[in-house]
Queue: 2 jobs
Job 1
Amino acid sequence: MELKAGSRWTSAVSDVEVVVVKAPAGDVALHCGGHEMLPLGTEGSGEAPEAGLSEEIPVGKRFSNEAGDVELLITKAGTGTIQLNGETLGVKAAKPLPSSD
Amino acid sequence: MNVALLLEMMAGGAPDRVAIGSKNGGLTYGELLERAQQGAAWLEGTAAEKLVMLDVNSEALPLALYAAAIAGKPFVPVNYRLADDRLRQILARTTPSVSITAQDALSRVEGIDGLDVITREAFLEHTTAGGEHAGTFVTPDEIAIILFTSGTTGDPKAALLRHEHVVAYIVGSVEFMGSSEDEAALVSVPPYHIAGISAILSSTYSGRRIVYMPQFEPTEWVNTARAEGITHAMVVPTMLDRILDEIEAQGESIPSLKHLSYGGGRMPIPVIERAMHLLPNIGFVNAYGLTETSSTVAILTPDDHHEAVRSTDPKIYARLGSVGKPLPGVEVEIRDDEGKPVPAGTKGEIWVRGEQVSGEYEGVGHVLTPDGWFPTKDGGYLDEDGFLYVEGRLDDVIVRGGENLSPGEIEDVILSHDAVADVGVVGVPDQEWGEAVAAFVVLHEGKDATAEEICEHVVSELRSSRRPAHVIFIEELPYNETGKLLRRVLREDFPASK
């Protein structure tokens, strides 16, 4: 699969939905709960996330990899560790800022 | 990604929470999304390539912004206060377009080729007409918002903000659903100002209810804030001063108000000191940003304010006059005339870089360096601890005998004189020095000061080159409605007022 900034994906095995904020070039494998994620709007497989890959994914958080060349925004919460090419993505921690608008 | 996704997420997370209006009977996030989608369906069926808004604040504003985003057409809020010829020139630049237009402005926009006009009421009807939008995929590099900057010379520039810039700003600085259900923001900045746009997007993403004021008026502001349980607000410096007058006159505070941010122009230190004294339980935030940077790039936090005001160290106290530190994801550098970075404490031009920075104008293209830096044309400096001080537009710098003088520095000193209520300093032509310092001074009612006293006061604090050559006493200074001092007007008025 190829990720494109702005493209949206859904988990095959849970409610998780993401939008791609930043994408690495070329062919990648994006998984949630051990199963490849599907283009938004595609029906899931009905299976459950694999054992050990059932992290709770909160809505509104940004997930990225160590290299920082991929960033996903979680648009819907659900279960299933998110991985890119086998590497588990983690929450990009941000200190809450006081509102300026 | 599309800015409308921010609303989609919130409508998914808390569809029944009130987004716009009063806690009882306001528009919920679910309704806002559904109606914006129907508005998009209408817009898709028109020949318009842009959606213009020529109106004051109301629920139609966020509906129009999101409808345009869903339809993948740029949203262009335009300043309804412009003179007719200027307004028509700007509208002609948006065609083919459709303009949601205030009832009383309809006659001003007639007969512009390619501009369809619709009233606010008719637009609102389209948002409940049941239309199905196409669900077009909008790529992140499409234009989301076009804002005409108030440029002091020549044609106004149309700043282009793409979806990726605006969304980067919001998701990078606002916590999704970070607000409690009790929070409410009072928005009185006009829709054609970047602060009016970012107020919608950040309130949506954090889940904070918006209460609109069609136009700013201090008594109504204070009364609305109390009646609506307002917790948050953003004001420009001139608004804050007038709000404080009103609170003092009423002898009563605004108990619900927790958080007040200010920006859009230089805040005089005496005003913020007075605000902190009068409203001790409110967290103040000073925000610095530009249209071209999708709003805020640096903030002075409530903690910074408290630390500064309590400090006996003049360097820390001086931070009350700073705009704080860059947001995460934003870099700030001060550079000299040749574009080379200068050390802390040295004045120069403020440059910024980050994913939220567009720096792009219609017909001009973007003005970023190949590595993404944007020259703001604002002058300023960073202190040793990384606090940013903004001294105003570089175009306003007074060049006197080869020496660069910052109007803001001289204004701060004059303003600290007991008798002075407000002051604007500009450079005026001078045979001997090229430019000379002219100070337009507004005195407090019942107080008196001579021109000589003002000059002596300046020289007691600053080098003698800063001494005004002219002191002109006037009734009030010319500001635009977003609090920017119109120095151009002062310069033009100078020969007559001398």
Note: Chain A has one domain: 8-86.
Job 2
Amino acid sequence: MRRNILRDLIFILFFKPLTWIFLGLTVNHRERLPLQGPAILVANHNSHLDTIVLMSLYPISRLYQVRPVAAAEYFMTNPYLKWFCSCILQIIPIQRIFSRMRTQDPLEKVTQALQRNEIVIFYPEGTRGEPEQMGEFKKGIAHLARQYPQVPIVPIYLQGLGKVLPKGKLLMVPFNVKVVIGEPLMNQGDRQDFLGYLREQITGLSKEG
Amino acid sequence: MTAVYLIITALFGFLALASGVSFFLKPQKRPADLRQRILSWWIILPLFSLTLISQSFWFLLLLCFISFMSFKEFISVIPTRQGDRILIFIAYLAIPAQFIFSWKHNTEFAHFISIYLFLFLAILAITLGEIKGMLVSVATIYWGLILTVYCLSFLAYLYTIPVSVRAPAGGIGLVLYLVVLTQLNDVAQYCWGKLIGGPKILPQVSPNKTIAGFLGGVLTTALLSIALSIFLLPFSLAQAAFLGGLIALCGFLGDILVSGIKRDMGIKDFSKLIPAHGGMLDRIDSLVLAAPLFLYYLKSFHVGGL
């Protein structure tokens, strides 16, 4: 992916001020955020704004390397939304629902992105779910961890965005938002209960002051 | 206006002096966050003084921004229900309205939040069917509005006060007087507390505040009030000294009021907006009570139309 002046402008003029003033963003352990790929950011998911907030953590010059994984059947249907998601947010679209005739790896595009040294944003819950509650983790992230033991997986806890813009609501209401970045996990893919371990890490971050 | 410029210049001088002292203090003698604290003042002071002397809506905008950030901090730490989002949204919309009423000296300034919105929010919650927990929700939102919007909007009222109040430097001077006094009272209490130490005044709320700090603050602020009143206030020296002491007391009470809310919610600061100071609400807590008191003091003791 290449830098795009429109994306840079939208983030400078709109998304960065939005996260600072509207969301009063507090970041704990900003130094743990990987600025170089390949890396996988793993966060709990409650709001469309989660992706905007995580991307806004990055300096403008690094933005083009950050690739949020998102559901193709949700974001790629409406043509305007599709343009915004692919050109501005440059999402990696994946199919959540598969027919029985599965021919290709559902995470193929994610692995390609990791091979291009990009930073992938991954929501293991797979959906935004109930406001301010963490749902069950899907298995995809465990496959990635096993397949790429050398790629750091950075657990991130997002607090407050389920109040700002929860699932199914159109009205945005300002609340302060907190982002807690955890220590990168490496070589953990062989764990019996990787998903449980990852979940424990994110829950641990949520208790931080 | 000359007096206003002079006082602002003096403030910059004082800040430069404090920066110098913190620069030469040995690390073991210096409170850990002193330098960061002073650095933050280097942002706050120019921003405040530039908008203040603009004599235009820029100051109104600054007040609305301060109020917005404070209300957001308050509403983010109190428990809220998903169904309260619409009420909170309406509360946000009330911020510019309230400040414009104050700015224009509209009589609704006194009733808009305290009566109309008070009833409207509760009725809206009921008609939306958000019954369970409604009283707690409406009461806490209302509390936030009074604390961070209504009380602060008195500053807008003071800023555009009519010339019939014969304040030597007009409304700008009154706002400058109040803000400088409350903020320096904080600094004076902090310094006297550190210098003398001694028994704590209210340890279960503010572990750092001492009796000596409080009394030193009151005395320093009363003296400063006398000095500033010559340029800024339509009062005699005795009235100014008394007002200074009252403002110091209100500053202290506002501080422990906001600290009490923080203790109740189990947090240390409302946010990390201002490095080493905490949130916006942590910075302006001493203004919350002092601003209404100042206006009522003016109304009570000033001879002439208001």
Note: The CA atoms of residues 149 and 188 of chain A lie 7 Å apart.
